[in-house]
Every structure is written in structure tokens, then in C-alpha cells.
Design brief:
The chain is α/β, with parallel strands linked by helices. Helix content is 42%, strand content 19%. It has one domain (14-133): 3-Layer(aba) Sandwich (Rossmann fold), CATH 3.40.50.11060. It has a four-stranded parallel beta sheet, with helices on both faces. The longest helix has 13 residues, at 65-77.
Amino acid sequence: MTQPQRTNSVQSERAVLVGVLLDVPVDPENPLGELGGLAQTARAEVVAEMTQRRDRPDQTTYLGKGKVAELALLVERHDADVVIFDNDLSPAQIRNLEHELKIKVLDRSEVILDIFAARARTYEARLAVELAQL
């Protein structure tokens, strides 16, 4: 079984955006609007979006099992290269999702760091971003 290639860059990739709506206020008309803007800034093409309302995140995959299966179908249908979560995921959750979906999974923080890395011009700036990505 092959694992997805782990690079934080989302440049020129087809992305599915995912948001788990917990007890935080979001724009009901466009709950993933800001994440979509970040993905576009990182030069990803947003091909689909999915949200799930939950009381608390699942410890294993952040989403419920049914939503993970639904997400896998969405990824396949849109031939996506990456799934980007609007939430901060643990390394174990990212690994579990990548195992289930067979593609790269990033969280919001990784996308923001990717944008900073793409715009870093000095050695010090590139080093600071590299340290933050560890």
C-alpha cells in the first residue's frame, strides 16, 4: 500500500476543503470562505467543499466514520490531490486520514506556513518557516 507523498506545498493541486463546525461562530452562508481564500493564495484549485457539525471531534480522524467514507467518494469523484481541513489536526489524525483517503491531508496551519514559505525571501525567513513546520 502506498502512502501519499508528504510535502506541505499545495501549489497547483486540486483541493477538497473540509470543515468541522464545533461551537465556534461561522458564516452560515460560506463557512469555508476564509480557508478557500488561503487555498487559492497557496495556488490550490478548490474543487469541492464539505462540512460536518459535531459536538466534539473524533479522536481518530476528526470526522465521523460516515463522513470519512463520504469524503473518500468526494475525493475520487473530483480527482483531488489534497484535502485541506479548516481545523488543526493532530499528526495521528492526519496519518489516519491519509491512510483512509490515499492522498495528502493538510490542516489550516500547514497551509498558512506553506504561504509564508513561498513568500520568504531571506535566509532567516526561510529558516523561521522551516522551524515552524517541524
